[in-house]
Amino acid sequence: MHPIPLTQDLVLIGGGHAHALLLRMWGMNPLPGVRLTVINPLPTAAYSGMLPGHVAGHYPRAALQLDLVRLARHAGARLILDRATGIDRATGRVLLAGRSPVAYDLASIDTGITADMPALPGFADHAVPVKPLDDFADRWEAFVQAVAAGTLPPTVAVIGGGVAGVELALACAHRLGKGAQVTVIEAAPQALTALGPGARGRMLRHMGRLGVRLMTGAPAVAVHPGAVEIAGGLRIPGAFILGTGATRPADWLAGTGLDLTGGFVTVDETLRSSDPAIFAAGDVAHMAHAPRPKAGVYAVRQAPVLLANLTAALTGGRLRPYQPQRDYLKLISTGDRTAVADKWGLPLDGAWLWRWKDRIDRRFMARVHDLPPMPAPPLPRLVALGVAEAMGAKPLCGGCGAKMGAASLHAALAALPTPRRADVLSGPGDDAAVLAHGDDRQVITTDHMRAFTQDPFTLARIVATHALGDIWAMGAAPQAALAQVVLPPMSAALHERTLTEIMAAAAEVFRAAGADLVGGHTSLGAELTLGFTVTGLAQRPIGQSGARPGDALILTKPIGCGVILAAEMARAAPGAVVADTLAAMARPQGTAAAILAPHAHAMTDVTGFGLAGHLVGLLEASGVAATLDLAAVPVYPGAEALAAAGHGSSLLPANIAALAGRISAPQDPRADLLHDPQTAGGLLAAVPPEAVAQVLGALAAAGCSPARIGTVTAGPPHLTVRA
């Protein structure tokens, strides 16, 4: 059976609660033919229901994080970590802050809201809006640490006396403890107007219990460093000032031409906007048929209807209506592990309500954290001998983790004839071939790899950086590049969109490196693969054969991206770890190469065979040995823990086997990372001892984060690793 081609682009703008639940449901039953994309500035999104508990110290930060990286992998979606800045409805494209636009056939908006108050003088400089939640949580933790260190007083001013403001004020007072001074500032004559009289009375009683001061009829007129000024000139102290008194959608929505209500996207009973190709849900949506206050309960209950209607729109089906409940049970935490309930006017209060709220919140988080396994289909009953062994115990990785093992590769290349042309100065074995080019030398290399991310733009940036690594390792200046692209089954429109993204990202990387992307070749195949052939120019190419005893070994990037990418495939790597690693992989090495090249006796880039494999190759080419300080080798955050948990690239066993008898190393997860296949890895240079201080200083000044990891020694080629 032929694979079903992708024909429609569904783009989810924002990682709000409705979209998070949609991703989970989509992963259980994806719609064939749809490429699903999620756009969000961060790899995680905070769950608002547990924020007061986090502020109060009851939950760690990780407990309220929706991991969009894991959800996207579960759903088979590509996650674009960027901020939407607009929608070009005429061309069907979402505009982004940091990259080229993304095309859509159908889009949904769930970007949430912000609580900033741009009209209040000084707010942007001296206050913290409670939304977006991630930034608020970061700044709150920094404040708590400063109070504990004695560098800031425990004073908090909360602008806004609604339910959110009072709930957070109680949480702040509980967390800061005795001696804290927390004030709620409300412009209206009365606070907590959204609650019934019974619940309101109980909340006011809890404010008195924790010493939280309430000021009503006190509109804030300005925010100063350490204080909020209210009408009449009185200043309320607040080393931490938070704003809850406003709810605003993103400013860019005003430029979309969509029908808006108070800045929010107006939707009908099917959650569809005034544009049939755009839906909206969560706080950013205004339900014209049934207006409701902004509350997470509506976003959660919109999710299945949103999924059903997006599916219907993509398949030509009939849309179904969403009818929100008229009221909902409000469970409001009160600082300590107690809560107040508000529904039907009943004044319920106590620890049992907090436990109930805690169960509800944890149940929601379990829905998006505990993703059901999606096992691969079993092998047929009868297969040829060796099939199970060839498939391996783990799925094939992408990037350099999909390379042939070193032993098989070297055996296959052994029969390759030596170059016969006089202008071909080197053959296989170094990072790039060297050709005579007038008085200079031209180097040429090629790299081609299986996709390791669903996002073609990110893939192209990293693969282009990876391909340039061989040029930089030879001490050459990049010159020109050709692309080789294999596109998976798609409609002609999606092929064009995908190739446009790839070429835009790659051209940006090559242009920044001083090279031109001059063309290439495309083909259609089973899955997305991408490669580049790159040339460079150098007067004196640097090979791997010049290392000398006494040289220092300098590495310019951490290792461990292979295990992180493998764990991400298994939905086991934390989203923030994956996002930080991909960003580091895309960091170019041109500046580092320019600093190292005038001094290095030998240089290579660390890629598929791991740091140990490439270092041993350099030692064998130079006829020397080396000692490596394992503790000095930089490792990507999260990589060692994932290795200890049993994760690893599908190429890892072959890399370890290839160095049998050529390396002496401890047997532990950190040492295993020396064999971890790297994609777009760092440069590894052998630098004479008299130049080490100068080189390390220059690299650090250029922001390259270098590490001196070992020393070249005399003796037969062998790598000794010291813990």
Automatic annotation (TrEMBL):
The gene is selD. Keywords: ATP-binding, Kinase, Nucleotide-binding, Selenium, Transferase. One of its GO terms (molecular function) is ATP binding. Residues 429-537 form the PurM-like N-terminal domain. It comes from Phaeovulum veldkampii DSM 11550. One of its GO terms (cellular component) is cytoplasm. The keyword Kinase applies. GO terms for biological process: selenocysteine biosynthetic process. SUPFAM superfamilies: FAD/NAD(P)-binding domain (SSF51905), PurM C-terminal domain-like (SSF56042), PurM N-terminal domain-like (SSF55326). This is Selenide, water dikinase SelD. Residues 548-716 form the PurM-like C-terminal domain. Residues 9-303 form the FAD/NAD(P)-binding domain. InterPro entries: FAD/NAD-bd_sf, FAD/NAD-binding_dom, PurM-like_C_dom, PurM-like_C_sf, PurM-like_N, PurM-like_N_sf, Pyridine_nucleo_diS_OxRdtase_N, SPS/SelD. The keyword Kinase applies. Transmembrane segments: none annotated.
